[in-house]
Amino acid sequence: MRTTACCVFFLLLILVGSGHMLAQATSSGNIIGIVTDTTGAAIPSATVTAVNKGTNAQRITTSNSTGQYRFDLLPVGRYDVKATASGFSVAQATGLELLVGTTLTANLPLQAGQVSTTIEVSAGNQLLNTEKTDSSTAVTPQQITDLPLNGRDFANLAILAPGAESSYI
Fold it and tell me: Could you say which DSSP state residue 139 is in?
């Protein structure tokens, strides 16, 4: 009897814990990059700010000794990222579309000059991700809404991935 009660308690503990772990896996992504000058030299201790355009929430970090910065676990959405450093103009990447599980790269080149000068880097679709070796596809909410899904089965979205094949037996 006592062993059964311990087993039931243990199973409940596992179920509650696994639900908490699933809640931790929020829909998020990462933004990384390098802050450099016009010669390609790293700019350490530059202030980098990421602003979510939908919520206006912002995160601030500084570049490390090699000029690299990283924003982890950002909620999905559109972001503007800007870098500032003393003696340099502001560099900015706008319109970064962060999707679930993606890592975007936004390298920010700063030019020597007055702080009032701003350099804007237009963010296009990233064709090659040099940070990860696995293959994945992000399906946008617009695609889910617009595509005719047979019976609204989300599993049909898997055939949108490059190299995926649909086999019916």
Answer: P
Distance CA 79, CA 42 (A): 23
* Local confidence pLDDT in tens for the 169 residues of the chain: 566 655 455 555 565 555 444 444 568 999 999 999 999 999 999 999 999 999 999 999 999 999 999 999 999 999 999 999 998 999 999 999 999 989 999 999 999 876 556 666 766 655 555 666 666 677 777 877 777 776 667 677 777 777 777 765 4
CATH 2.60.40.1120 domain span(s) along the chain: 28-122
Report the length, in residues, of the chain. Answer: 169
Q: Are 77 and 54 in contact (CB under 8 A)?
A: yes
By the 8 A CB rule, do 35 and 83 touch?
Answer: yes
The hierarchical CATH code for the domain 28-122 is 2.60.40.1120
Tokens of 135: 């293959």
